[in-house]
């Protein structure tokens, strides 16, 4: 979905409202340690895709499925918490971005040469300066 300033702002508001809905209103779904990572809203504000991630992939996918099944109730509670002309239709998706990032890091660690401790320190440190020319080293 195309991101604009308006859709980003509405997405943040929907995300915040959904957090409150999950905490206080929604009783039939236990989201456990899952969290909302992003909400993408369509340009007409009638559709919102909600990305959910968690520590355990299997449990998080089950939470996403339960939320998909309860999206009518979630939308009703959401409508009471946000001020929009239309409450967006919700689509809950499992967010695979953290897993992809982890896989990419693993692959890069296998492909790129490992730096030894000395090389990493030398590259990360500032270049050496001649102490004789520094003003803070007064040799009187």
Describe the structure.
It is a single chain. The chain has 140 residues and is of the alpha+beta class. It is built from five helices and three strands. The chain has a three-stranded mixed β-sheet. A hairpin with a 5-residue loop joins strand 1 and strand 2. The model has no long low-confidence stretch (mean pLDDT 81).
How would you summarize the topology of this molecule?
Layout: H1 5-25, E1 35-41, E2 47-53, H2 57-69, H3 71-81, E3 89-94, H4 97-111, H5 117-124
Parallel strand pairs: 2-3
Antiparallel strand pairs: 1-2
Total of DSSP H or I helical runs spanning 4+ residues = 5
- Unreliable stretches (pLDDT < 50, length at least 5) are none
Mean pLDDT: 81
Radius of gyration equals 24 Å
Strand content: 5-15%
Biggest sheet, open or closed, and with what strands and sense? 3 strands, mixed
Task: Find the CATH superfamily of the domain at 5-101.
Answer: K homology (KH) domain
Summarize the structure.
This protein is of the alpha+beta class and 140 residues long.
